[in-house]
Amino acid sequence: NPLSRQGAAVTLTIDRQLQYVTEKALVKAVDDAKAVAGMAVVLDPKTGEILALANAPRFNPNAPQGVTADVFRNRAVTDAFEPGSTFKAFVIARALEDGVITPASTFDCEKGHMAIGRHVIHDTHPSGMLDVKGILQVSSNICAAKVGQKLGRERLVENYQQFGFAERSGLGLPGEAKGVIPFPRAEISLATQSFGQGLTASPLQAAAAFGALANRGVLMKPYLVSKVVDSDGLVLLDNKPTEVRRVVSERTARTVADMLERVVEQCGTAPKARMDAYRVAGKTGTAQKADPVARGYSDKHFASFIGMVPAEDPRVVIGIFSD
User: Fold this and answer.
1) What is the pLDDT of residues 127-166, one digit of tens each?
2) Would you say 175 and 168 are in contact if contact means Cβ atoms under 8 Å apart?
3) Using CA atoms in the order 41, 47, 49, 55, what is the torsion angle rounded to 10 degrees?
4) β-pairing, 38-43 with 316-322?
5) Residue 283 C-beta-side C-alpha neighbours within 13 Å
6) By CB atoms within 10 Å of each CB, which of 143, 171, 187, 244 scores lowest?
C-alpha cells in the first residue's frame, strides 16, 4: 500500500527564527521602496550553511490558488541581475592581493566625470582624490574603473570566476542561475565591469562571494540541506561544510573587511546599516536596469546591500536585494 510508505525526513540549514525575521524585514523593505520584488540571503560564511532565504512578494503554499507562476520563483537563486557596486569589494580585494595597489594608494576621481572614448562615466558623489577605503566608502565608479584598468581584462574576469561567479554553486534547487561574466573587450566594458555593470550574478552568488571575504579569504560551497534520513533511520545524505577554494589571502580579506566598515559610517553610502551592539561591514550596490525594448538602460534600478556581522569575526553574511 503506497499510503503506508513513509518518506524520508529532510533537515534544512534554515534557522527558523532568522527566516521569520528576514521575511518580515524583506516584505517591509519592498513595500517601503514600492519595489516589484525583493530577495534576501543569510548565510554562515564559515560553513556555507544558508540560514535564511526569502523572496517577496510572498505566497501561502497552503493556498496557492490564484497565485501567478512568477511568484513561485525562488528569485534569490533563479534570477541573475547586474549587481552594481557590491562588486567593487572583489575588484579591490584582487588588486590588493596582487600588489597592483596598496591600502595607501590614491586615485583622482575627476570630480565625478570621466570620459572613456565617446562614453562618460559618472559618480553619484563627485570626489577629488580618494584612497582605497574612500573608494569603497563613497562608492566611486570612476576610481573603481581605474583600479580595474590596473588589474587588466584577464585578471578582472578570472577574479570574478575565483569568487564563484559565472558558475552554479550546485545548491540543488531547480533553475539555479549561472550568471554571465563576458570578456570586456572594449575599454568602456572594462570600466563598467569594474563597478558591477555589464555582467550578471544571482543574489545567492553575491552573498556567497562576500562570504569568502568574511571567511578570511576562503569561499565555501553554499548548502541548504544538512541531512536526509529515511524512515528506518538510515542516513541517506549528511552534508558537511565544503571549501571551494582560497580566493585571496587572510590578510587581504581582513583589510577589505576593515575598509567595508567605513561604508556604514555617517559619510559612507549605508549609515542606516550601522548597529550599536555590533560592528558591521558591508557594501551598497545600485545598478541601472537594462531596458530590453529601448536597448540601453532604463530609469529603473536594482539596489542591494551585502553586509557581514560582527565585522571582526563574522557569524553571518546578509544580502538584501531590491528590484
Assistant:
1) 999 999 999 999 999 999 999 999 999 999 999 999 999 9
2) no
3) 10
4) antiparallel
5) 31
6) 187
CA separation for the pair 281, 261 (Å, rounded)? 4
Active site residues: 85
Query: Residue 40: what residue type?
Result: A
By DSSP bridging, strand 316-322 and strand 243-246 are unpaired
- Tell me the one-letter amino acid at 244: V
Digit-coded pLDDT (tens) for 12-37: 999 999 999 999 999 999 999 889 89
The cell for 206 is: 553575491
The 3-state secondary structure of 253-289 reads HHHHHHHHHHHHCCCCCCHHHCCCCCCCEEEEEEEEE
pLDDT in tens, 48-96: 999 999 999 887 778 777 777 777 788 899 999 999 999 999 999 999 9
* Interatomic CA distance for residues 278 and 269, integer angstroms: 18
pTM of the predicted model over 0.70: yes
d(C-alpha 313, C-alpha 300), whole Å? 36
What are the DSSP calls for 55-86, one per residue? EES---TT--TT--HHHHS-HHHH--B--GGG
